[in-house]
Amino acid sequence: MPNRCIRPGDNPDLTKERETCTFDTDELAANLYGSRRNLERRREISQKVSADPDFADPIPHEFLSREKAVDATAKKSKVIFQKWKNLVKPEEMPHLVNEAVGIQGFPLALHHAMFLPSLNSQADDDLAAEILPRAKAYEIIGTYAQTEMGHGTNLRELETTATYDKTTQEFVINTPTRKAMKWWPGNLGKMSNYAVVCCQLIIDGKNLGPHNFLVQLRCEKTHEPLPGITVGDIGPKIAYNTTDNGFLALDNVRIPRRQMLMKHAKVSPDGTYTPPIHAKLNYGAMVHVRAHMIYSHGHLLARAAAVATRYSAVRRQGRIENGGPEVQILDYQTQQHRIFPQIARAYAILFAGQEVRDQYAKTLEGIANGQADLLPDLHALTSGLKSVVTFMGGLGIEQCRMSCGGHGYSDASGLPKLYGVQIGGCTYEGENMVMLQQTARYLMKGVKWAEQGKSLSPSIAYLGKKSGKSLIGLKGGDITREHEAILETLEHTARRLAIDASQLWEKRIKGGECKERAWNGVTVEMNRASRVYTRLFMARSFHRRLLSSPSSIRSVLSDLFSLYLHYECVDMAQHLLEDGHCNGGQIQYLKKRLYEDLTTLRPNAVSLVDSFEISDRELNSVLGRRDGNVYEALFQWAKQSELNYTDVLPAVKNYMMPMMEENRSKL
Ligand SMILES: CCCCCCCCCCCCC/C=C/C(=O)SCCNC(=O)CCNC(=O)[C@H](O)C(C)(C)COP(=O)(O)OP(=O)(O)OC[C@H]1O[C@@H](n2cnc3c(N)ncnc32)[C@H](O)[C@@H]1OP(=O)(O)O
Ligand SMILES: Cc1cc2nc3c(=O)[nH]c(=O)nc-3n(C[C@H](O)[C@H](O)[C@H](O)COP(=O)(O)OP(=O)(O)OC[C@H]3O[C@@H](n4cnc5c(N)ncnc54)[C@H](O)[C@@H]3O)c2cc1C
Questions:
Q1: DSSP label at 536?
Q2: How much is the pLDDT for 475?
Q3: Confidence band (pLDDT; 50, 70, 90) for 282?
Q4: What is the pTM of this model?
Q5: Could you give the C-alpha distances from 643 to 57, 640, 648, in angstroms and in order?
Q6: 287 lines ligand 1 (CB under 6 A)
Q7: Which residues contact 80 (CB under 8 A, 6 or more apart)?
Q8: Which of 199, 230, 224 minimizes the C-alpha distance to 213?
Q9: Cα separations (Å) of 604 from 309, 334, 468?
Q10: Which tens digits make up the pLDDT trace of 92-111?
Q11: Which residue is closest in CA terms to ligand 1's atom 26?
């Protein structure tokens, strides 16, 4: 079967890997990206970016100072949003940005991820008509400023206020304390001249909770901060260093009434407040990013898996049998066990990410028609997915990094940066432990609804089912039935953990604790239930994708799905065993199946990551390059280090040489 990545001059080990491929890599890539046409467009964009001299990098970003890297990123962003703007569809934009700029952020990241979505979904018609065309035409750049130095998670305690002044029909926006400064918003520090700012709405002395307001921060002509505004960059971070995450203080800044985002909640000129149809519609921009970040985080893990797999096929170290040749490190079982589950998880996350994006679009449609009934389900799912996927992705990328040995530690591998970017997602858009509790709240309601025989939405329908005995290992031979047996076991486990957590909570309440304190005493168990609910959703989503896949890729997807299920079950063995639903023999069976899966997938490993269809430029990894010619490329990469511009560094000349000289003269 064809692997379409084979080219003359490639590393022969990689070519051999590709020759053993049992499926059509283009078919799988087309399935992943939705269609052949999408795949072709993806390639076209990659090729055009590589050929565009405006995107050329004289030296890799890794060797630039932060300021120079920000500069280079801004320069490329201008090219994207002027020259390229009309050449790509909105849905192709993330790929174009990844190709042209990279993953560490760019001046319009928050403009796209949160500013435009907030205005689109929360501004009333008048404000939208005035500001959206300007924002869409990039006449202005905006961000989303919610988090403060003292509060990020607990939005109810944000301190920034928007106090309505009826006499002038203005809001007075104020930062009352040092820790009330906005702190962290992306692109706030230097790039944005506008922001959606989240403030406590105060009318006649009454606090009506967090609401969003459009605030101009900088002069449109000079880009200087406007009077009453203190704004700047918060400094270097683990990653995202081409993003100017910023601080902001507002000193009684006045804005017109109509700059409150009033599509849902409204304040009339006389100060009458009308609440929204759902109390949390003001939080819509967060749901938007949570729904979209699942897919983009799947892509980050896919990159790491591609780097680790290709490099492991090229790298030869040690022997399996005495007297045999040095083997490709991909032949070690430990290496396969480290990397192959990451390939499977990357596919699983990408599939789940696509499903949740569709669910988000449906929910938004409902809200536009005055129906917010799909929102609780979406909020529970996106909260769980963002937490599970970012954590899983971070662990996975770190496994991939370690699997590349010493070279994985070098920025040349691209893996340290990938890890830094990925783990940001564990914190932003709601700290993971906190968001898992949001999912758990929904599950607790689901447990009650199930007890009362009420109808349940599809994502929690399993809460209303009855458990049979686990058939894992008892349905031998037939892979389809084995998949079903495992999915049923996962359903049982997700249900059992939710019911157990609910009972533990109730027990504490009956024991005299208030609901909230009792909740805090069971949150570890609550979060376990949320994780398994989410992992069940991911497994079900992968299964739906497998069942709807064309026959040409069904077999390889089925192998990958088997590995995914076996790995997840072994990873969650504690939960499967805890209530005796599975026994030790069944866990041993799952492990045996997992080791078989590693062997089954081995010939297709490189081809599976080739189907992620990530160009060399986008991958930005000397170890993961498509042609596998890593050693020469490593040397060429290192030569660009600024420490190599001269043979004798000033640091050596000024300090080390005199020290050695002095010590020699003492002898
Ligand atoms: C094209 C797009 C591309 C995007 C691609 C992605 C790339 C991304 C690049 C990187 C960008 C990074 C940008 C980062 C941005 C940020 O981090 S912005 C700041 C994000 N901040 C947070 O997420 C804060 C987390 N905190 C909260 O969300 C809330 O405070 C809370 C924890 C949810 C609690 O809120 P609170 O008001 O106290 O509510 P509760 O009492 O807990 O709950 C009451 C009920 O409301 C429900 N609920 C809560 N939130 C929502 C929601 N968003 N939607 C719907 N419903 C919600 C909650 O479940 C409760 O329901 P009931 O149980 O029924 O009462
Ligand atoms: C890379 C990056 C980009 C960001 N971009 C933006 C942006 O564009 N705009 C913006 O407004 N913000 C942004 N943020 C801020 C981000 O949204 C917050 O940092 C995040 O929501 C976490 O809030 P916190 O910092 O207050 O953490 P804290 O809430 O202080 O968390 C600290 C610890 O306390 C625990 N904790 C807190 N509350 C609870 C609870 N109720 N139950 C159990 N444990 C709890 C947490 O689990 C965590 O372990 C960004 C952050 C990062 C890292």
A1: H
A2: 64
A3: confident
A4: 0.97
A5: 19, 8, 9
A6: yes
A7: 96, 97, 100, 101
A8: 199
A9: 11, 17, 36
A10: 999 999 999 999 999 999 99
A11: 153
Tell me: is residue 147 an annotated ligand-binding position. Answer: yes
* ipTM metric: 0.97
186 is in an annotated binding site: yes
Among candidate residues 27, 99, 148, 429, the one labeled active-site is 429
Distance in angstroms (rounded) separating the CA atoms of residues 404 and 422? 18
Proximal ligand: closest to the CA of 375:
1
**Which of helix, strand or coil describes residue 211?**
strand
Mean pLDDT across the chain: 96
- Domain 1-21+283-454+477-633 is classified in which CATH homologous superfamily? Butyryl-CoA Dehydrogenase, subunit A, domain 3 (1.20.140.10)
CA distance 550 to 511: 56
Order of strands, sheet of 229-233, starting from the edge strand that comes earlier in the sequence:
182-183, 246-250, 229-233
Query: Which ligand neighbours the alpha carbon of 237 most closely?
Result: 2
Protein residue closest via CA to atom 24 of ligand 2: 152
Domain range annotation of the chain = 1-21+283-454+477-633, 139-276
- Pick the closest to residue 306 from 414, 412, 392, 206 (CA basis): 414
Burial 251-274 (b: 16+ CB within 10 A, else e): eebebebbbbbbbbbebeeeeeee
Residue 206 dihedral angles phi and psi, to the nearest 5°: -100, 130
Least confident of 100-109, 125-134, 172-181, 364-373: 364-373
What is the Cα–Cα distance from 231 to 248, expressed in whole angstroms? 4
For the purposes of burial, counting CB atoms within 10 Å of the CB of 439, is it exposed (0-12), middle (13-18) or buried (19 or more)?
buried
Instruction: State in words which class domain 139-276 has.
Output: mainly beta
Determine the Cα–Cα distance for residues 63 and 36; give it in Å rounded to an integer.
Answer: 37
Torsion from C-alpha of 559, 564, 565, 569, nearest 10 degrees: 140
Cα of 336 to ligand 1 centre, how many Å?
A: 37
Please tell me whether residue 513 adopts helix, strand or coil conformation: coil
| Separation of alpha carbons 345 and 356, rounded Å | 16
Residue 383 has pLDDT above 90, yes or no: yes
pLDDT interval class at 476 (50, 70, 90): low
CB atoms within 10 A of CB 291: 24
Token code pair at residue 493:
């486990």
CA distance 438 to 546: 30
CA distance linking residue 619 with residue 412, whole number of Å: 11
429 is catalytic: yes
